[in-house]
């Protein structure tokens, strides 16, 4: 478990299925992040038990009530959606619509970055966002990521479509300099 001033980052639990469904069923969340909106609590439970049950994938919950409202996670090496080295990781994240614009994802991502660089000894973190997802772009900038390259007509297996993805990265040295500003 990790924590910040306002958040708890903890493993997903079966009891999170109703709140996951509440936020992941909103069409404004999944499709811009590259996955289909959830259609039932049972589907959300299945995703918790399969996709979210991997190491370094966390439920984002408010300190006040510990209810899951989003996700941050690390996909390391070959588990990433990018072609990266074994000592590198991709950061994935999303948060429910009622919590947009409050700076919660940058807060969670910064804590996950600290964990990745200081505890897991990751050398570089990567992060992507699909064209049109300006909220994600802004979150990455707030965390010190810099644009690295753009991939056009990239196949997205979750929605069976092709998209333009902008890919950013930050090295451990860049993160240390950014964190000391």
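-> sequence recovered:
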């Amino acid at each position: 478990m990790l924590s910040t001033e306002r958040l708890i980052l903890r493993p997903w639990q079966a009891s999170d299925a109703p709140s996951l469904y509440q936020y992941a069923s909103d069409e404004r969340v999944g499709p811009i992040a590259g996955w289909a909106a959830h259609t039932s609590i049972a589907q959300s439970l299945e995703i918790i038990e399969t996709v979210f049950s991997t190491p370094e994938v966390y439920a984002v919950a408010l300190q006040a009530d510990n209810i899951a409202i989003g996700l941050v996670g690390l996909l390391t090496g070959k588990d990433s959606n990018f072609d990266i080295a074994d000592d590198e990781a991709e950061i994935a994240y999303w948060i429910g619509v009622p919590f947009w614009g409050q700076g919660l994802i940058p807060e969670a991502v910064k804590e996950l970055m600290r964990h990745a660089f200081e505890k897991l000894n990751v050398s570089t973190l990567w992060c992507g966002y699909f064209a049109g997802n300006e909220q994600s772009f802004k979150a990455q900038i707030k965390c010190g990521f810099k644009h690295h390259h753009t991939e056009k007509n990239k196949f997205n297996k979750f929605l069976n479509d092709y998209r333009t993805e902008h890919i950013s990265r930050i090295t451990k040295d860049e993160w240390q300099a950014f964190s000391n500003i």
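Residues 118 and 167 are 23 Å apart (CA to CA).
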